[in-house]
Amino acid sequence: MKKNEPVTRVMSTELVTIHDHEPVSKLREIFESGDLHHVPVVSGEKLVGIISSNDLMRISFGEFGNQDGKELDAILDHTFDIPGVMNRNPVSLPVTGSIREAARLLVTHRFHALPIVDGDKLVGIVTSTDLLQFLSEL
C-alpha cells in the first residue's frame, strides 16, 4: 500500500531555515513573509532545533503592545536568541523512513512538522498538510 512508500515522496526539499546565531527578528520576518508555521534551526547543515510560529507568538507577548515592527524587532533581539526560543531536541525521521513512520511520529507527538535528516544533516521536512495532500490523492 502507498503508506509504506518512502518519505521522500512527500517531503519538501525547498527549505526555509534559520541559523542558530541569527537574530530572532529574522525569524519574525520569515513567519510574516510566507505561509510557514515551522522553521528548522541549523548550524551549518546540521539540524539543531525547530521553531514554530506559536513559539514566536509565545515570546512576543502579543507584539508588546503597539510597537511597530522595528521596535518589536529591537525588543526581541535584545531579549531573546534563537537557541533560547527553539526546541533543542526536535524529533526527526531518517531520509530512509516511510510515509507511515512520518504519520505515526506526527500523531504520537502531536505536532505538525517533522524534519527529515540524513545523519544529522537536514534534507527535508514533512508537514501534516503534506500527508493530508498525499492521502487525498489515493
TrEMBL record:
InterPro entries recorded: CBS_dom, CBS_dom_sf, Diverse_CBS-Domain
Pfam families cross-referenced by the UniProt entry: CBS
Domain of life: Bacteria
Keywords: CBS domain
Domain CBS: 11-69, 86-138
Protein's UniProt keywords contain Transmembrane: no
Name the UniProt record assigns to this protein: Inosine 5'-monophosphate dehydrogenase
